[in-house]
Amino acid sequence: GEVCNMINKKYNEFLPSMQSAEDLVSQLDGLSSNIDLLKAGIENEVQRDLNVAVAEFTELKQQLERDTLVLSILKKLQEFDTAIKEYNTALLEKKYVAAAQQLQKARSSLKMLESRKGFELKILKALATELTVQTQNMLYHLGEEWQKLAVWKLPPSKESSSLESAMHSELHLRTVPSKEEEIAGPPVASVLQAFAVLGELHTKLKIFGQLLLKYVLKPLISYPPLQPFTEEQSDVFILRFKSEGPNLDHSSPMEVFDKIKLIFEVLHKYLLNVPLEQPAEDKKDRRVTLAELLGDTIWEELSDCLIQNCLVNSIPTNSSKLEQYIEVIKATEEFEKALKTMQFLKGDTTDLLKYARNVNSHFANKKCQDVIVAARNLMTSEIHNTVKITPDSCVALPRLPDPGAGDHLKMQKTSKLLHNDTVNLENETKLSQYTFSLPACRISSSVEKLMELAYQTLLEATASTDQCCIQLFYSVRNIFQLFYDVVPTYHKENLQKLPQLAAIHHNNCMYIAHHLLTLGHQFRYRLTNILCDGAATFVDLVPGFRRLGMECFLAQMRVQKGEILERLSSARNFSNMDDEENYCAANKAIRQVLHQLKRLGKVWQDVLPVNVYCKAMGTLLNTALAEIVTRIAALEDISAEDADRLYSLCRTMVEEGPQVFTPLPEDNKNKKYQEEVPVYVQKWMTFKELMIILQASLQEIVDQWADGKGPLAAEFSAAEVRSLIRALFQNTERRAAALAKIK
């Protein structure tokens, strides 16, 4: 009974808790199905609404960005518009700087608009055009104003620049009555600043600077008599020119500097003393003045002109005047200082001053330049104006100083002539006559002058400062190097075409080589102290000059040889002379060769030294004889008539050949050289032997051969003689016997 009670009791307690658990479960089931419903609802509806909302949001955000962009663009468009309006107002009131600044504003607004990617407005094209039109309009107005402010009255452009035309130039600068100035500031300033703001000032000043150089500054430098004078009226300042004083070639640097300074002072006072607002992008620490800008554009050209047309001419040409040059250097310093004060020049020593201070080297350079120019003119002058040189000719030479005389010699002009026969090496030593003598011949007078120039310059070198002495010595060496390079090229065609010029050129080179042997020697005391280890010599140039003369003459000889062979090639090989036509051709060829030699003998007469003349003519005559021998010796068949005709052709050569030797103008003196022809013509005896064979019997030929010891054997080989016998004689036993003896 007890146990049942306990179980009942527990059971009763258990029931309700189970009940509640069951309730709980059923509640949970309900909840769970609610959640499923809800989930299905969310998946179906809410999610959809949410997507819509996000899309709307993004769209709104983009809309906003677009609106902001449009707004900023509209703002820029408005800024552009305002700027253009304000520019128009300012322009009407002639407030040029303000107007220019408004244009720049409009320009930067337009830049912003153009930089927006993906936003190409049709209107931008129109705005850019509008801006360009307005800028051009403004520049036109400014240009008009500028033309009123600085008025040029110029000579008609057809006139070439001359002192006459320079006197017709005027420059009018408008000065403004003071009562207006308080309102708008000086118009010069506002016009030029407006140009500066628009970035066009540089162009304007450049044009002004060019006119200033061409019509004012350069004429003042180039025409010494030209003087500037000025006139001030109530509202305008005028710069004019007049011609005063002697018409010198060059005015002194001092005078030129004063004139130029006056011009700059006027410009500074009336036109250029204006500080500039820089265009917005390059803000500098300081304001640049107009004077400085103008200075920048013209200084280089002006200083070049001053150096070339004024300082160069003031460099002294002899050493004594060098001391006085200090004044010029001072004046140059003053001139630069004045220009710096007016702000035309910035920075330190310019080229102009450097040039003036460097006078010693310019003196030497000028001297050397004059020497080289003179030398070059001599080298490019005609070769064929000649002078006769004889062994006792001499170069006109000033008396040389004693070795101890030191630097400060006064130059003594040509008090003593240097004779070739006693080459005056020092003033004491005499060498025997003809040690260094040149054979008589003709040289170009220009080359004789060139040599005098070389001696003269070396003499001047010995009296100069060390630096100058060295430069002058080297410029004399340069004369000869220049000759070596210039003459053969400059006269090339004539040297090839004209045998006489080739001969003169040959002599010129030999003459120069001859003098170069001793040229340094006369001046060695003075020069060797300065030039290391006795380098004061020209001997090293000698072989080059000899070669130059030889090569040119040999080239001419080759041309002449070629012509001789060319003429003989038309002689039909000297075969079948019994044919009239063949004989005529051969005869004509020989006549032409003799004519050519005769003409050469004439053009080289009295030009070439006699020994060179005889060698040259001998070589050419030899070419002709050797060719004739070769052709005749090669013939396979010579009839009796052929032999007679060949003999008479050869006789013409032997009789008339020597007569082409006429080395001297006096005929009676040429006999001696004509008799010596065999000495100069190597094949002379061969030719004579050939003539003997053409007339000889078989026996005479065998006798002339004399077992290989006779005169014939000295000139021809056995094979050649046998070949000639076969050509001249019929095949007989007597011929066979004769041939057997020639071996």
UniProtKB/TrEMBL annotation:
Q: Start and end of every Centromere/kinetochore protein zw10 C-terminal domain? A: 436-566
InterPro entries, alphabetized: Zw10/DSL1_C_sf, ZW10_C, ZW10_C_2, Zw10_middle, Zw10_N
Q: What range(s) does the ZW10 C-terminal helical domain occupy?
A: 588-742
| Main localisation | nucleus
Fetch the Gene3D superfamilies from UniProt.
Answer: 1.10.357.150
Q: Which Pfam families match?
A: ZW10_C, ZW10_C2, Zw10_middle, Zw10_N
Localization per record: Chromosome, Centromere, Kinetochore; Cytoplasm, Cytoskeleton, Spindle; Endoplasmic reticulum membrane
Keywords assigned? Acetylation, Cell cycle, Cell division, Centromere, Chromosome, Coiled coil, Cytoplasm, Cytoskeleton, Endoplasmic reticulum, ER-Golgi transport, Kinetochore, Membrane, Mitosis, Phosphoprotein, Protein transport, Transport
Q: How does it sit in the membrane?
A: Peripheral membrane protein
Task: Tell me which residues make up the Centromere/kinetochore protein zw10 N-terminal domain.
Answer: 2-84
One Gene Ontology BP term is: mitotic spindle assembly checkpoint signaling
Q: Which residues form the Centromere/kinetochore protein zw10 middle domain?
A: 142-379
Superkingdom, taxonomy of origin: Eukaryota
Taken from the UniProt entry, a GO cellular component term is: endoplasmic reticulum membrane
Q: How does it assemble?
A: Interacts with NBAS and KNTC1/ROD; the interactions are mutually exclusive and indicative for its association in two different vesicle tethering complexes. Component of the RZZ complex composed of KNTC1/ROD, ZW10 and ZWILCH. Component of the NRZ complex composed of NBAS, ZW10 and RINT1/TIP20L; NRZ associates with SNAREs STX18, USE1L, BNIP1/SEC20L and SEC22B (the assembly has been described as syntaxin 18 complex). Interacts directly with RINT1/TIP20L bound to BNIP1/SEC20L. Interacts with C19orf25 and ZWINT. Interacts with ZFYVE1.
Please give the family membership noted in the entry. Answer: Belongs to the ZW10 family.
Quote the protein name from its UniProt record.
Answer: Centromere/kinetochore protein zw10 homolog
